[in-house]
Each structure stands twice: as structure tokens, then as C-alpha cells.
Amino acid sequence: MSDPQQPPVSPYASGDHRYPPATPQPAYPPAPPQPGSPLAGQPQPAHPTYPTHPTYGAQPPAASGNALGRAAFLIALITFGIGLLGTLAIPLVYTVGIGTVFVEIITSASGLISVIGYAAALVLGIVALRRPAPHILAGIAIGIAGSGIVGTAVAWIATFFYRFI
Length: 165
Hints:
Layout: H1 67-96, H2 100-129, H3 136-163
């Protein structure tokens, strides 16, 4: 048994500092004094107030989101759909037998609309990333638009070189 004159041995006495000593925390905040107690007439301390930062003070509702990011995402998806329809229409035009001129018109119009739509989605996505709101849709829009612009540019370059070979 331990000697009543010596303090209890702590695991920290040996230099073991892996675990901090437990500090007792009150389970509940102190109750206000009862009406008959000697502290009843004294003012009670208010809950601590912390200054609010202008950026972090008032937050918009969570449902508002980033409208610019949503717009960029929708423009990127619609542009992707237009490019996909243009690509799927080419074999149908060949089977109908309308001619290569009509195929070139479909390809050129689809490519031009795609580049304009992807550029708009890319610009809106970048602007949306600079705003303090959820960025997931803006990031997806930037990814779709960036890959669409690169894909369309590579297709145009390949077509350009194919005509002169």
C-alpha cells in the first residue's frame, strides 16, 4: 500500500508524456441561484460572446448553393449532348446517302457550337470557383469544358492534316 505522506505516483512522473492528464469538466453549466439564496440579487455573468468575423458571421442558407456553378455545369452538359448528337448523326447521314457536304455541315456546326458552349462553361466555372460557395459543380463543369475544348481542337487539327495528306 502507498504511504499517506507521499503524493500518488502519476504515469507522468517517469517522463511518459503520451497522454495528457484528465481535467475534470463540469457536466452541466452552473445553475442560476435560487430566489432565497444570498447570490439571488447579484448579476449573473452572461454567456461569453465572441466577435464575429465579417466573412464567417452570417452564412447564406445551405440550399442556396452556387448558381453560377450550376449554370456552368448545365451549359457543359448541354454542350456535351449537342456534340454527342452531332457525332451520332454522321453515320445516319452516310446511310441515308445525302452526301458528304451535309456531313461536313453537321460536323462544322456541331464543332463550332461545342467550342462556344465549352468556352462559356469554362469561363463561368472559373468565375464560380472564385465565389464562396460549394465548388463541386463548377469543378465538374471546368473538367467537362476543358476536355471538350481539347478534344474539339484535336479533332479539327486531325481533320485539317487529313485533308492535305
